[in-house]
Design a protein that fits this description.
- The strands form three sheets. A five-stranded parallel β-sheet has the order 2-3-4-1-5, sandwiched between helices. The chain has a three-stranded mixed β-sheet with strand order 6-8-7. Strands 9-10 form a two-stranded antiparallel sheet.
- The chain is of the alpha/beta class.
- The chain has helices at about 5-15, 25-35, 50-65, 100-115, 135-145, 165-170, 185-195, 200-210, 215-230, 250-260, 265-275, 280-285, 290-295, 315-325, 330-339; strands at about 40-45, 70-75, 125-130, 150-155, 175-180, 200, 230-235, 240, 300-305, 310-315.
- The radius of gyration is 23 Å and the shape is globular.
- The protein folds into three domains: about 25-180, P-loop containing nucleotide triphosphate hydrolases (Rossmann fold), CATH 3.40.50.300; about 185-245; about 255-339, Arc Repressor Mutant, subunit A.
Length: about 350
Amino acid sequence: MGATGTGSRTDEIARAWPLTGRSRELAGVQETLLGPRPRSVVLVGPAGVGKTRLAREARALAERSGRATQWVTGTHSAARTPLGAFATLLPRSEEPSAGVDTIQDLLRGSARALVERAAGRPLVLFVDDAQLLDEVSAGLIHQLVATDTVRVLATLRAGEATPEPVTALWKDDLADRVELQRLDAAAVENLLAAALGDQVDPAAVVELTGRSDGNVLFLRELVLGALADGTLVCEEGVWRLRAPLSPSERIVELVDARLRGLDPASLSLLQLAAYAEPLGPREIGGEAAVVEALERQGLLVSEFDDRRLQVRLAHPLYADVVRRGTSAVRQAAMARGLA
């Protein structure tokens, strides 16, 4: 194959991006969710690790096995309304009052409506981004699982506040919690070969593995961006990098969405980490509480190296995006402070 970076080739690879490196997890989910003694499953992992893609593959398996399926997604906007995530699946009803009996009646009626949609078949409900559900939607899911009405597969972003009824699913042993880890170098190499269709230069594999940190979403966007700008090319049947990788606009948008709404102290600390990581006690100063909050949000990680505290950004690409949005005045101020 000759060198290529055309839009048509990029679009083709984007459409055919494979699920690779998750065969063990998918088999486990299939056995748990669809096996002879089925249980519900909660997939947990950082943003971009592949939870939604794995859930979609599991849904396809459920449908091929003859089960009825439904899919709902938690969003910030839907969370403003009780049962907002289920709005398209349930009959129209008045907003519930604060009375417990009214809420319980609403949950029972909603559960019946969902089961009726399955038309007598076993129902598997897929819930994406369950951490964004309103409390009533979360309560419905808990009731469905606790009463053995349906099987549920929920995805959950690690490190974010989650409604108590959702966390109770695994804490009360009503569902299996499955942690999705980042892909290792071998899995990244296999995924690149499957996606690109040709051999990938080992140096490119190392660079893409390091820059994506095994995050499937970031890996995909790095590859598509590098194809689009001609950084990643195929020469004599081998894909090679012609220049250093840089974040695509899509990656910038994804990271900016994670940073949106941060208070000035948090953003300032991230900027400092982007230019001077690893940060130690001297650089952190009195901002330990800010570090802890950013760790809970999955934006920073801390560890001890030979008994010295070190704080870094949670992903290599965060530094690129944060630096891109840092003004020259702020850079100069940080340089003076670090001198």
